[in-house]
Amino acid sequence: MSNRNRWNPGPIATCLVAAGLVAAPAVAPAGPLQAAAPPTLLLGLGDSLTHGTMDATNNATNTLNAYLQGVADSLGQVMPLTFSQPLFDDAGVRMDPFVKPTNLGVDGANIFSMVGLEYYKRAGVDESYPSDDYLCDPILPRRLEDKYDRVLYPLNLLHGAPASQMDGARWWLKRSALDPWTSGLVILWIGNNDSSAASLGAGGQSPTYQPLPFDAIAAELSPGLRRLLGEAEARGLVSFEPFTESAILRNLTDLADFEAQYGQLLDLLEYPAGRLPAGFDLFALTLPYYTGVGYLMDAEDLELYLRKLSPDYSVPASFARPQPGQTTAVNGDRISLFTFLMMYTLLGTGASIDEVNAILEDADGTQADGLVLSEAEQRLIVERIEGFNALIRSAIAARGPRMHLVDMGALLNDALTGATTIEVGGRAFTRRWGRGHAFSMDGVHPGHTIQGYVANQVIAAINEATGAEAPDRDLETIMASDPYVDRDGDGWVPGPDSVSAGVAELLALFRDPDDGDAAVQPVLPADIWDQISAILVRSLLGIEAIRGEAERLGIAEATDRPD
Q1: Residue 142: predicted pLDDT
Q2: Please, what is the angle between helix 67-75 and helix 448-466, to 10°?
Q3: Per residue in 106-146, pLDDT tens?
């Protein structure tokens, strides 16, 4: 836990700003008719969707292909625009730390971390508390240690204290009284991560949940990693049973807490004097069902992929199948992408169907609840997300004419459940991992084309509210180079050209080696379990409790933390 005293950047920061090292934000180019007009400020607030995450990775390629950049590109064609991205290189290093960002979205943010708080339920304590983890605090750019530092710097210097995402937003809003903006556009898409840990089976503290079938794969893992995870599980630091009712309810934000905190965010944005600055409009987006993303795989998915390795594969009887033709939010049991990848690798390296299915079903024929997200458990999550959306709609409706609702959740949920179809150039985009074309390889974040679709909904809302005539993004053009489109229909996608360390490395093992030939499938390398062990070490050591356990045990394999 952290409760840092507020900090003054002192003379170093003052000198940085005075010397002009903190550059003005980039201004999008405008046509000759708009050249003399004051620029419009575009401010993005939210989580990984606004940050621009794909393949569980933050880098410039992903951010520049995400929805907010698409919105900025379209708006920049009809108005001068103040907009800047805190771009990361492929190693996750901030590329130009002295540019003041106007995209303040941070991967992993929720309605509490927006103001620097850790939510009590997911931390396993009695009340929410301030956490340094959600603040940008370095004075010098060489010390940008985490995502909040790398996204928000140097707004903390300008704010005069460690800065949360909302502190950065309020600094920009205060500047509106000094800078020559006649208008501003604030995009707020937050609340997804108030259900993500429950839906994805990953996250939380004391324990942190991981959707890995540890008992089934332990013998395949390297000795150091096997010992580390076994000891961490025994001490209650990690749980490999994320999909129990108690774990799900713990990882969901309570409705009363959501209502109070979302209202506080809107209060903070209505600055000063309880209102948005003159000429500013806020656009708040509702939330899609996390239970409907491609990351969560049902019986149809499992059988399609595992039968590539063993034609006789079928899910066990206790694993509920989706009902054909149903367009309800809950339809069939599901497991996480990472559970599936471990099952696929086990089957591909000699395990029997019965051994693989033991991950899903106990010996007595009952469902192995810990790694299976049942229909009943999905329903709990869906009902909570619907509650979040109802609260967002009510909060925005009560705030006056310059706060606008973009019902993105409704649009995406219809597509995720199959009630409607998103079609681009004759190709249907669905929730299915890989073959559905809609998601990046992590199954959570949209690929390039659906990012463009989201951008178009935001652009339409801005046009309607402000009279702007910004053009839509051309989805067919975007799709032509989208690396997450399965062009040969074999269920695998080529993915991006470059791969970052961590989860993206694991996903890259399952890329399509030839997306023009459906007969060419990914080939598991002979040392696949060694590679998986190394990747898991690099990924899991980003979790403080597990890193501390590795240091306590003196496990050399797991103590060399990657850069």
Answers
A1: 86
A2: 40
A3: 999 999 999 999 999 999 999 999 999 999 999 998 889 89
Report the relative pairing of strands 81-82 and 117-118 from DSSP bridges: unpaired
Tokens of 354: 């019965």
Of 68, 77, 69, 64, give the one whose Cα is nearest residue 29: 77
* 171 in Cβ contact with 45 (< 8 Å): no
Judge residue 308's burial from the number of C-beta atoms within 10 Å of its C-beta, 0-12 exposed, 13-18 middle, 19 or more buried: middle
Contact call for residues 185 and 42 (beta carbons, < 8 A):
yes
CB 456, CB 475: distance < 8 Å: yes
Among 425, 415, 421, 438, smallest CA distance to 484 is for 438
Place of tokens 């099952």: 343
Structure tokens at 400: 């006056």
Which two three-digit tokens encode residue 351?
């395990």
**Between β-strands 27-28 and 81-82, what pairing exists: parallel, antiparallel or unpaired?**
antiparallel
d(CA 57, CA 59): 6
The pair phi, psi for residue 315, each rounded to 5°, is: -65, 155
How far CA 183 is from CA of 41, 75, 211, 466, 484, in Å, comes to 7, 13, 45, 10, 36
Annotate 139-175 with DSSP letters as a single string: SSGGG--SHHHHHHTTHHHHHTS-B-HHHHHHHHHHH
Which string of DSSP letters, residue by residue, matches 304-330? HHHTTT-TT----TTSPPPPTT--SS-
> How far is it between the farthest Cα atoms of the chain?
75
- Give CA separation, 437 vs 348, 420, 465, 479, in Å: 25, 15, 31, 9
Per residue in 226-245, pLDDT (tens digit) is 999 999 999 999 999 999 99
